[in-house]
Amino acid sequence: MSQAQRDQAAEAAAKSAVVRLFGKNAIDRIEVFPAEDHTGEQSLSVTIYLRDYKAYVSGARLLDTIVAVSDALRNIDDLRFPYVTFLAPGYEHAEDDERPAA
After folding, report:
1. Distance from C-alpha of 80 to C-alpha of 74, rounded to nearest angstrom
2. What is the per-residue DSSP string for 6-52?
3. How far from chain centre, in Å, is Cα 36?
4. Which end of the chain, N or C, is less packed with Cβ atoms under 10 Å?
5. Looking at residue 93, what is its pLDDT?
6. What is the dihedral of CA 50, 53, 54, 58, to 10 degrees?
7. In the predicted model, what is the mean pLDDT of residues 83-88?
8. What confidence tens digit (pLDDT) does each residue in 42-62 have?
9. Whole-angstrom Cα distance, residue 6 to residue 56?
10. pLDDT higher for 66 or 88?
C-alpha cells in the first residue's frame, strides 16, 4: 500500500470513528492529515469542527475520541498517534485574547 493510500485509509477510519461518537449532525467537518510529533515520529492531526459553539467537549470526551480514533487506526494496522483538536464557531484563540498578561 502506498503512503497516499495509507493516509486515505487512515482519514476514512478516523472520520468514521468520530462520527460514530458524535453523530453527523454535531460535526461541520473533520480534517485529517499526516504530521510528526515533537520527536519526529509519524502521527496524524485530526481537527474536528463542531457545528455548535455550545457543544462542550470535556477531557473525558476528548480521551474517548483519541481512544476511538486510535482503535480505528489499529484496526487498519496504522499505529500513528492521533492528535485531536476540537474547534467550534465563535472559538477564540488564546493569543487573540486582549487581556493584559500577568
Report:
1. 8
2. HHHHHHHHHHHHHHHHH-GGGEEEEEEEEEE-TTS-EEEEEEEEES-
3. 14
4. C
5. 52
6. 60
7. 92
8. 999 999 999 986 667 888 989
9. 32
10. 66
